[in-house]
Design goal:
The chain has 214 residues and is of the alpha+beta class. Helices cover 37% and strands 9% of the residues. The protein is built from 6 helices and 3 strands. The protein starts with 40 loop residues before the first helix and ends with a helix.
Length: 214
């Protein structure tokens, strides 16, 4: 199962030796190289996910060694891990893909490196190189094949909000709230039985249930 934590480094991807990892904090500044602000974890993560959205990729899971809060940001009471590599798993054109980077000493710069790589590949398509982009991404096929939690949503049977929350379709707001709180702990990416995909599905079902109970 592909999980946000701990880092699931893809098979076949070489690791960068620790002594060869680059301190690229200044190189990846926002805006001007000399006066721009540094990327935060949240900003770098969001920019990476937005670039995947532009690519029309689906089911993205960012895997790192950072323990996360409920909102997906690193916990402030935990030190940064020694291994700051990142791997992004996603589905593109129905095929599972993965890209990873550990060339830099901070996760923020590793995420920026992946974002810029995806942006460059999208540029191929904009300039008539769609086939080249497709061939480039063929080298990022995720191995081993992911399980149902990482599959293209269209390949899975669609679930209603009450099926996800495991409550009757006519459940009242209190029942929905209790079920959500129980499942939120069980499906959180930090939990042994949780994953980012399952947690996001739960959150979406909860929001839908609240709308239907208004």
């Amino acid at each position: 199962m592909t999980q946000a934590y701990p880092l699931q480094w893809p098979d076949g991807w070489p690791r960068t030796p620790e002594h060869k990892r680059q301190d690229s904090k200044y190189r990846f500044r926002r805006g001007s190289t000399w006066s721009g602000s540094f990327w935060t974890f949240s900003e770098a993560r969001n920019a990476l996910l937005e670039e995947l959205d532009r690519l029309d990729a689906r089911s993205a899971v960012l895997s790192t060694n950072y323990t996360l809060r409920n909102d997906g940001l690193p916990r402030a009471d935990r030190r940064a891990p020694e291994d700051t590599g990142v791997a992004i798993y996603f589905v593109l054109n129905g095929r599972p893909q993965v890209m990873a980077c550990d060339m830099h000493v901070r996760a923020e710069e590793n995420m920026r490196s992946l974002t810029l790589s995806i942006e460059a590949m999208r540029a191929l398509a904009r300039h008539g190189g769609g086939l080249m982009m497709e061939r480039a991404f063929s080298g990022f096929t995720a191995l081993p094949p992911p399980d149902a939690d990482f599959a293209e949503p269209a390949m899975r049977a669609s679930k209603t909000w009450h099926e996800v929350l495991k409550v009757p379709s006519d459940a009242n707001a209190d029942t929905v709230e209790i079920a959500w709180r129980v499942l939120r702990k069980k499906l959180h990416p930090d939990a042994p039985s949780g994953s980012t995909a399952a947690f996001q599905e739960l959150q979406a079902a909860y929001e839908q249930a609240k709308g239907s109970n208004r």
